[in-house]
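lol ok so funny story. i was supposed to be doing the assay writeup but got distracted and ended up predicting the structure for this chain instead. priorities right. anyway since i did it might as well share w the group, maybe its usefull for someone
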Amino acid sequence: MSQPEHFGIALVGPGTISEYHLNGLAATGRATIKAIVGRRLDTAQALAKRFPTESVSDDLSAVVARDDVDAVVIATPDHTHESITNTALAAGKHVLLQKPMSTSYASCTRILDAAERSSADLQVSFMHRYFEEVCAAQTLLASGAIGTVTSARMRNATPGPDWGGWFFDPAYVRSGVVAQLGVHGIDLLTHLLGPVTHVSARLDTLVPHRRLADGGTAEVKNPDTALASYRLANGIVVSHEMSMVEVAGCDRFRLEIYGTEGTIWLRSERGALAIANERGEWSVPTLGEPAFGRRHHDRWLDGLDGTLPAEHTAKDAAAGMQILESIERSAAAQSVELSVEDSQ
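and the output, tada:
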């Protein structure tokens, strides 16, 4: 793949996550924001006042037709991903698509097919992969620092979004907490530990009405809590807790990895990364502190200009959607209900 080292980027979707991408791209020093595209021009213009941008538009087709636009970052609601991504790919523009990839595995497959027909590269944005502690943990695991991994525990738990009622509508976010938070954990687990082969899960809606930041109220029609168990192809067993109702949950995620000769904790009370040896003695390594998002966006651009091979995040994201759908099917299966007398 031959591309210039400096890229013209269009951002589609001037919502909350757009700032992460704009800051990360700016930190690389390798990209110019040629356009911010929004359904509402006033929202795009407001974002453009805060970040260096050459133009704003509400016309996606016109922007992807521009010769000075090499790639598109798509940060729109989940249900719009397929149509916007396919428009960009058909125009030959590289795509960095915000997670989740889409709303179903079938939709993900159609997007992958569109990428195969295009000359452009397709990636899905999983920011947590590129955190310093995750990269360090990946190196430790590859070196056998904690022996053979036997089990892991992942938590994705926050108070949940309060800036848009659409998050709580299955027409836009089909699996609620799993699609919004859980897919981050699914991606990290498979990225670090290996593919999932078995799934068992439960979904619940524990808070049926949510107060929004604008003073409105949203009826919660999709799950806000999920508990899943996975078995990986290599025999590792994993528990995965997902919540959008914890007032003080975890800091983006918490991951505990247990091996025969030690333990790795990420984003815990011991710090961003902590390691215990087989005697239970803990150490906390010093990590670098690059600008937030720089490592992620540098890696994307490295794949575009051929400095490094392009990653396979789109195929990984589609596999993650299969796991999400397996969680739904497992949760829908009949469970055994005990009476109070039975449980005593």
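The two ends are 65 Å apart (CA to CA). The first strand starts at residue 7 and ends at 12.
back to the writeup now i swear
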